[in-house]
Amino acid sequence: MTAPVALDTDQARTRLPQLTVIDVRTPGEYASGHLPDALNIPLDHMRRALPALKDASDQGELLVVCASGARSESACSVLAENGVPAMTLTGGTQGWQDQGHDLHHPATEARTTWSMERQVRLTAGGLVLAGLGLGLLHRSGRLVSAGVAGGLVFSAVTNTCGMAHLLAKLPHNQPRPADLDATLATLAQRSHEHAESAESAGRATDLNA
C-alpha cells in the first residue's frame, strides 16, 4: 500500500488553520498535550468515526497525528482503505514539541496517563524481569523473556506494535462514550461551518465576477 502523504512540523504549522487535525492517541496521552484544535479519536475507534471523517475530508484536508508517527500512519491506512484521504505528521506530537511548538491541553479536567511508548517499555521490561525470575525456578521460564525479545524485534522490523494495540484496550486507555460522542459532534459541526464558509466565499466570488 502507498505510504500516506507526510507533512513535517514546519509545513503542518504553516497550514494548521486550514487543516482538520485528528489525534489518534489514547485519551490520557491526548490530555497530556496536543496540537492546537486537535480532536481526539483513538486509533481503535477510527472505524466508528469514518462517516464523520469522510464528511470532514470532503470539506478540507485531514492531518492525523500520534506520539511519534507510527499510529498515525496506521490510521491513514485505515482511512485510505475506506476512501478517506489523510496526511500524517512526521515525528508526531513529540516532534512538534521538540521543534518548540506549543501543545494545548483540554479545557476540562481529563485523565492523564503515560504515553503509549512508556507503557510498552514498562510492560516489556516487567515481562523480561518476570521471565528471568521464573528462569531461576525452571529453565522454561526464560521463554517469557525470549518471547518479549522476539516481539520487540518483530515490532521494529514491521513498524507495528502488538503490545501497544493490546494496552490500548485497557480501561484507562479508553475514551468515555460521552467524550467520543462529543468529539464526533464537534467534528460534524466544524465540517458544517467549513461548508457554509466555502459556500459564502463562492457567492462572493460570483458577485464580484
Explain this structure to me?
There is one protein chain. With 209 residues, the chain is an alpha/beta fold. 56% of the residues lie in helices and 9% in strands. The protein has a five-stranded parallel sheet. α3 runs parallel beside α9 (177-208) and α6 (116-137) packs antiparallel against α7. The radius of gyration is 20 Å and the shape is elongated.
- Count every beta strand, where a strand is a DSSP E run of 2 or more residues: 5
In percent, how helical is the residue content? 55-70%
Described by the principal axes of the CA atoms, the overall outline is elongated
Number of helices: 9
The Cα radius of gyration reads 20 Å
Strand order of the largest sheet: 1-5-4-2-3
What is the arithmetic mean of pLDDT? Answer: 83
Task: Please outline the helices and strands.
Elements: E1 5-7, H1 9-15, E2 19-23, H2 27-31, E3 39-40, H3 50-59, E4 61-65, H4 70-81, E5 87-89, H5 92-98, H6 116-137, H7 142-158, H8 162-167, H9 177-208
Parallel strand pairs: 1-5, 2-3, 2-4, 4-5
Helix pairs in contact: 3-9, 6-7
Features:
5-stranded parallel sheet, 209 residues, 9% strand, alpha/beta, 9 helices, elongated
Care to give the gist of this entry?
By secondary structure, the chain is α/β, with parallel strands linked by helices.
